[in-house]
Each structure stands twice: as C-alpha cells, then as structure tokens.
Sequence to fold (242 residues):
Amino acid sequence: MRIALAFAMLPLFSTETIPAMVRNSILISLGLVSLALQPAFDFASFTAFDWIAILAKEAFVGFVIGFFFGAVLYALEAAGQIIDAKIGATMAQVVDPLAGHQTSLNGAFLGRLANFVFIFSGGLSLLVGVLIESYAIWPIANVFPRLAPVGLELFEAEFGRLMVLATLLSAPILAVLFVIDLGLGLVNRFAQQLNVFQLSLSIKSFVGTAMILLLLGGFVQAVLNDVITRPAALRGLLGALR
Fold:
C-alpha cells in the first residue's frame, strides 16, 4: 500500500502511460524487498482494527512520500496553466496522457519537462531509496503516529509550498504579461477603434512562449534543486511523525 500510493502520486506513473502488468511488477518487486527488511512480528496477534489502522497508516505514509516528490512536478504544470490563464490560452485545453486530465498547452509542456528532468536526474532512484528507508524509520508494525507538532508543521507547510512554487516559477512571465496589458490598455485609450483583445492574444502568446524558452534552464534547475532536497525533508518528517 505504501509503495503503490507513493508511485500513484507521480503523474509519470499514471495508468495511461504504463501498462498495468509492468507497473504492478515494479510495485510487487519493491514490496518484496521492503518486506525482507522488516523485523519479525506476530501477524496472528493483530485484530481487525489493527489491520485497518495499518492499512490507513501505510496509505498515509505512501501519500506523503509521493506528494513530497511529486509536488514540484505538479507545481511546474500549474505554473504553465497560470501563464496560459493570463495569456488567454486556456480555451485550448488538451488531455495530458501523463497526468490523465485536461491541461493547457504550456501546462502540458512544462509538466512533461518536469517529468523528464525528474527521471533523468535520478529522481526515481531517490524515491525508491526513501521508500525502502521509510520502512526502517516507520516499520509496518508501528501503527499509530506521535503526531508531533514539528511533524505536523512540516506536513502542512508542504501543501502551501506547492502553490508557492507554482507562483514563483510563473512570476517573471506574469510580470511581463502585466506590462503588456498595461501598454495595450494605454493604446486602447487613444485608439479605441483598435481591437486590442484580439491583438493582445497574439502578442501575449508570442511573448509568453519566448519567455518560457528563455527560462527553460531555470525551470530545469528548479526541479533539480527540489528533487535533491526531498530525501532529507522526508526523513525529518517521518522521523517526527512516527
């Protein structure tokens, strides 16, 4: 359950991109490895309530690990959607097979870029390492967390961090687009017969695309920096919650 939820939180492991047999084989293989690392405990002594609590705890830990690693992937896609909303290109929605839902053109492009960088930078290896290590930090038999205040603060901050990342990544382009809107507003004041709305779509689309291409290196570096910090952050969180 822990491994399945962690991988399910990553958009690159959606049902549309990886066959079920391949995905399930990966999950079962990692599950067998992690099970061999567990200390011996008596299954027969567990009650039905204990099993339900263990399943809930495993799902929670898997969700936390997957969300911590997938936050930057979702943030970069969200940044693209924010940019497209400002451009006015959200009318051209497309279905992203990696994410499994509708997104805008720049959102799909930046989301795909984030997934590729995550794979090629060794993000999957870090994820597997953290998953295996999490069984040592929080074994299967340890059911109830301590819910320490420090752990809860780290957990809550991660949800806010997703929108902060999306806003920061899109902020330079949004600033330029706001300046364009201001300039076109002044033009429309003195040339009211000019169709500024149609003109703005073309200008902002061109400038937005050019800015995204100029900032690609920064986007890649942002994903790399975030992926590197995830293992240490998760160790601290799981250690505080267990």
Notes: The chain has a mean pLDDT of 78. The longest helix spans residues 149-190.
